[in-house]
Write a structure and sequence with these properties.
Helix content is about 30%, strand content about 15%. It is an alpha/beta fold. An eight-stranded parallel barrel has the order 1-2-3-4-5-6-7-8.
Length: about 270
């Protein structure tokens, strides 16, 4: 099964490019679910999700809608020094996701590490810890540092039943390349855009992801996505180039290229 969506949905600058003019923030989710059958929740990186919020989103979503939830930043980027605090963070995060699990709407948990998460024994040990703490969920791991771009990493993740996040992002030295691979049960692709000039330093929030893919650039991923889908139980393709609704536009185009519906009336598709 292959499902396409975007990384988030609640953006003021999507009003006009995607949402009809005058759309209120509290009406965005209902409109989004008529156009896409999944969403990646990224606000959970900035603040710990709450069980009541996840329950509300799950209840408002159509029957076959899926959520992928990104882990809170203190679980990946700002790690507490003591194990008791770390354990409590993972416990709180896991508890918040229970309504989505019980409703059959959790696609996976996304664990995205920063560029500073280098390939080392300590990092591999932390990945083992993550797998242990999130043992009840399907988990996808995203790396930013190119040191992890090898077959050894894929094999390591597969042994832990951690899935691998393929990325499309600027071709900058040290940044993860656009490799296609599968580990665990889930195929996952994130399109971040190719705004190389603003990747490391931005003039305004979100400028890093201010990029609209051409049809030709999307076509580059078609054989890769087919390869990933063939080796996965479920494959999720997410567009994170969210500035000014460009993610929604590219997600719709990619669905057309692949011959898929993005709406909840038809769930993804099979190759």
């Amino acid at each position: 099964m292959l499902i396409i969506g975007t990384s988030g949905f609640s953006f003021p600058d999507w009003v006009g490019p995607f949402y009809p003019p005058g759309t209120a923030r509290n009406a965005m989710f209902a409109y989004y679910t008529r156009h896409f059958s999944m969403v990646e929740l990224d606000y959970t990186y900035y603040r710990m999700p709450e069980e009541k919020t996840m329950a509300s989103l799950g209840a408002r979503a159509p029957k076959n809608f899926m959520f992928c939830v990104k882990t809170y930043r203190e679980m990946t980027h700002e790690l507490p020094s003591d194990s008791e605090t770390r354990n409590a963070l993972f416990a709180s995060f896991s508890k918040a996701l229970r309504p989505l699990v019980e409703g059959g709407k959790l696609g996976c948990v996304l664990v995205q590490f920063p560029w500073s998460f280098r390939k080392s024994d300590a990092s591999r040990s932390y990945l083992e810890y993550v797998r242990e703490q999130l043992s009840q969920f399907p988990v996808v791991v995203e790396f930013r540092n190119s040191e992890w771009a090898d077959a050894e990493t894929i094999a390591f993740l597969d042994r832990l039943n951690l899935s691998f996040c393929c990325v499309d992002e600027p071709r900058l030295k040290g940044l993860f390349p656009p490799m296609a691979a599968v580990a665990g049960e889930i195929g996952y692709v994130r399109f971040h855009g190719r705004n190389a000039a603003k990747w490391w330093k931005q003039d305004f929030p979100g400028e890093r992801y201010d990029y609209l893919y051409s049809d030709e650039e999307l076509q580059e991923w078609v054989p890769k996505i087919k390869q990933i889908s063939a080796g996965s139980r479920n494959t999720f393709v997410l567009f994170n180039n969210c500035h000014a609704g460009k993610a929604a536009r590219n997600a719709k185009t990619m669905a057309q290229i692949l011959g898929l519906s993005t709406g909840t009336e038809v769930q993804g598709g099979l190759f």
